[in-house]
Amino acid sequence: MNGLFKKTIIYSLIGIMQFGTGASVLEAAERFQDDSLVRQEMRYGDHRQREEQQRHEQQRKREEEKRREDERKRHEQERKREEQRREDERKRHEQERKREEKRREDERRRHEQERRRQHDERRRQENERHEREMKRRRHESEWEWRRRQERERDRHEHALREIAALLIGILIGSSDQ
Fold first, then answer.
1. Do the beta carbons of residue 130 and residue 156 sit within 8 Å?
2. At what angle are helices 142-176 and 36-134 packed, to 10 degrees?
């Protein structure tokens, strides 16, 4: 009995499998019959799908081109800003250099004017001293006075040459700059 029961179950399962396979084949065959409407729907579906893919691809390309164009514009703006920053910095350095040069020139002129003023003052003092020394004093004899005048003339000429040498040094120093 056991054997008969096993065979019944096996044959039943084989029958069910055949029935399922047949149903699947029939179902598939019905869809691909000469039904032009079904085929047309499939063609239009494929065509619509291709058109949708093409539209999607074109949209993606447009977005990519726009992104690249935006990136290019942004890069160009950054480059222009960098060029402007460099130009501004160059101008600022040039202005600083000119201010420093002017400051040095003004300082040199002030220094030169001060040295000339000191020179003029020394010359004035020397001339005043010379005038005093050249006058005869009450207690001096003629001979002593003449000797003192000679010494004073020599001393005065030496002092004036020294003052003139300083003035020449100033002029030479200022011409180098």
1. yes
2. 170
